[in-house]
Amino acid sequence: MNKNIAAEIENDVCEESSPDYLKVSLAAAMTMDLVPGIFYRNACLHCINVLLTYDEGCKANCAYCGLQKTREGDYNDKSFIRVDWPVFKTDDVIESTLKKKDIADRICISMITHEKAKKDTFTILKRFVGELHCPVSILMAPTVLKHQDIDSFKECGANMVTVALDVATPELFDKYRGKGVNGPHRWEKYNDILEYSVSVFGKNRVGCHLVVGLGETEMEMVRRIQAVRDIGARSHLFSFYREKGSRLENHPQCPAGKYRRVQTARHIIDYDMGRVEDMIFDDEERIIDFGMPFKTVAEMIEKGVAFQTTGCPGKTEISACNRPFGDSSPKNIRSFPFALNANDVARIRKELLDYD
């Protein structure tokens, strides 16, 4: 055999790419005892988050993302959501997840924008559905998908799907994900896949990621949350948390008050307690009235559920995908990965009233 051909075959075999390999979030790797570590306040991850991986990396260029193609460094060395995502064999991910049946309520396959991602997602999905004990979600890459792929995801056993729309307005989407960064994503495509997914999976079985603090006003974000709810999906919120080396590495995190008010509004809207049209905003488009009796809002704040991480549910309606400290440091928690205590609630009350 030609030595050059033999070398190419050997490189292909050694390449740690999907579907035989997967990146695993640091929190998931810790949960599965694949890497050592201790969670602050004993936070417990209930959703195993995995990410497709290829040497060429993601072909998108989102301004706030650690995986953006123009960020310096090799793809496998890039952080994502500010932490490492170590690579493991898919076989080992399955074996380790099965050992954590008492903890792992769900597993989520995160696609990236890559020509092989669709085919490999189906391969991994079929394995997870056939070999694991828990439901499987897919964080989709709409740019590489068609309507028939959504149908096939459900036919192959996916329990829920999510679209990471991330930004609240088409203008900001284009600026940070589309033409503004020479990226392939288009607002219309993302919303089309989101809406079609609801028609396939049904009401409350589709999620939409939204990142608070990318330049939108509170009114714009809450209107987007309402639009997502009106098609039958629910929003999963993140507080923008800058990624070193990304285009937005110097972009400030939004004020805590803004995030708390949006979290409260999202809870009201997503659980059909009220609508954006009932809410009142000031001249800077900040929420000053949630359109509900004060006592009802106060009771909701006291329970604290509105301020926990939002994502696909596990054994209860509370998110299994609780992503410990995925959008803040443990010292300044934005999305709580566990039930709030009295001190947490007291802090939330103060932050809700902060309009500086």
What key phrases describe this protein's structure?
TIM Barrel, 356 residues, eight-stranded mixed sheet, two-stranded antiparallel ribbon
Question: How is this fold's topology laid out?
Answer:
Elements (H helix, E strand, L loop, with lengths): L2 H12 L6 E4 L1 H6 L15 E5 L35 E3 H9 L7 E5 L6 H15 L4 E5 L6 H9 L4 E7 L3 H8 L9 H15 L4 E7 L5 H13 L3 E6 L16 H15 L9 E2 L5 E3 L4 H10 L38 H11 L4
Can you give a write-up of this model?
This protein has 356 residues and is of the alpha/beta class. It has a domain at 3-251: TIM Barrel (Alpha-Beta Barrel), CATH 3.20.20.70. The chain contains eleven helices and ten strands. The chain has helices spanning 3-14, 26-31, 90-98, 117-131, 147-155, 170-177, 187-201, 218-230, 256-270, 294-303, 342-352; strands at 21-24, 47-51, 87-89, 106-110, 136-140, 160-166, 206-212, 234-239, 280-281, 287-289. An eight-stranded mixed sheet has the order 3-1-2-4-5-6-7-8. A two-stranded antiparallel ribbon has the order 9-10. α8 links the parallel β7 (206-212) and β8. It starts with a helix and ends with a helix.
- What gross morphology would you assign? globular
Strand content: 5-15%
Query: Which architecture of the domain at 3-251 would the CATH scheme give at its second level?
Result: Alpha-Beta Barrel
First-residue to last-residue Cα separation: 70 Å
CATH topology of the domain at 3-251: TIM Barrel
Whole-number mean pLDDT: 92
Compressed to H and E, one letter per element, the order equals HEHEEHEHEHEHHEHEHEEHH
Q: Give the fraction of residues assigned to helices.
A: 25-40%
Strand order of the largest sheet: 3-1-2-4-5-6-7-8
For CATH, the homologous superfamily of the domain at 3-251 is named as Aldolase class I
CATH class of the domain at 3-251: Alpha Beta
Please report the total strand number as a whole number.
10
Oligomer: single chain
Uncertain ranges: 1-14
Sketch the major β-sheet: 8 strands, mixed
Taking Cα atoms only, what radius of gyration do you get, to the nearest Å? 20 Å
User: What structural category characterises the helix and strand content?
Assistant: alpha/beta
| Continuous helix count | 11
